[in-house]
Amino acid sequence: TTAKKLLENGEFQQPNHDEESPSFDGRNHLSNWGLPECVVDSYQDRGIRTMFPWQVECLTVDSGAVLAGANLVYSAPTSAGKTLVAELLMMKRVFETQKKALLILPFVSLAREKMFHLQSVLRDAGIRVEGFMGSQSPAGGLKTTDIAVATIEKANSLVNRLLEEGKLDNLACVVVDELHMLGDQSRGYLLELLLTKILYTAGDKVQVIGMSATLPNLSDLSNWLKASLYTTSFRPVPLTELIKIDSTLLDTNLKPVGAVRPTIALPNDTDNISWMCLETLMESHSVLLFCPIKSWVESLAETIAGDFYQVGRPDPGDTDPDRVEARSRLQAQLSGDRLAEVLEQLARCPAGLDATLAKVIRMGVSRASYI
Fold this sequence. Notes:
Blueprint: H1 37-45, H2 53-59, H3 61-64, E1 71-75, H4 82-97, E2 100-104, H5 108-121, E3 129-132, E4 147-150, H6 152-164, E5 171-176, H7 188-202, E6 207-212, H8 218-224, E7 227-231, E8 243-245, E9 248-250, E10 256-259, H9 273-282, H10 294-312, H11 321-333, H12 336-347, H13 355-361
Parallel strand pairs: 1-6, 1-7, 2-4, 2-5, 3-4, 5-6
Antiparallel strand pairs: 8-9, 9-10
């Protein structure tokens, strides 16, 4: 059994670096990258005013060739801020060339989320952002769209249509999020075909930007895409990766560094997953769990919520000091008022509130899966 425990203290957020720090020459400020003031203000409303040093380096790689329209392949750990680099480049290309951009994401849920985000950021900039995903397509199609956010299949159809109409040069930029999907057995070939058609037909007239947190063959991909290459291992929040075998914890070199020793018994917690989550939660941190399939996500969320309920429910007859302490610390972390507010907001959503989700959220647990 392998488990990764992610501890995050507060929300991930771009830093507000000191303007006079010798590490920066002003390029770390979003306001110095040629974006309209309304766009800069939108980012500032989200707490993003400056960039990390690696983001500036990535944007200026190869003596600024990427800013001039050269292709780019880059890799950075999760939460490092990859998306901001691609958004900035894509927006600059749209504003400067008055052409269109295509943003490709692997899943409908991700594409929809990104569409809403960009619509909000560009709401006052006169740029129309629309989604092409599942059964959704805007009235007027790509003709009336400035930035198209699409899944792989929809993006391939859009590129085919542009080729048929001889209008591929209407595109200024194509961004591929999760570029490692090229290796996907069922859908990777579509993404490869799409990029091949762009490279063969448009040459350097369409800027291709690919990003991912995990790219094992970066140099090969950058050579194929004739792209500048940038990699970083920067993380804004330290992440310790451990491997759990039975109750033993090992580091990434498989050296034992500790053990999981629950102080209270959780009958359904055969792999100590609930205990590790509980232990982390009691320390005022959050936990993010990944499962390979949707059914595992749902069942694990219900199991953990059930275990939390057993630990946290009032029981005057239970005087075991370990359980009393765990109950008190868990109750201190779960705010009934805030959880009730979350439930109320979800209930007002167009899709309504799923019964299972409502049950687990009451115990501070949520679930999400790609669709």
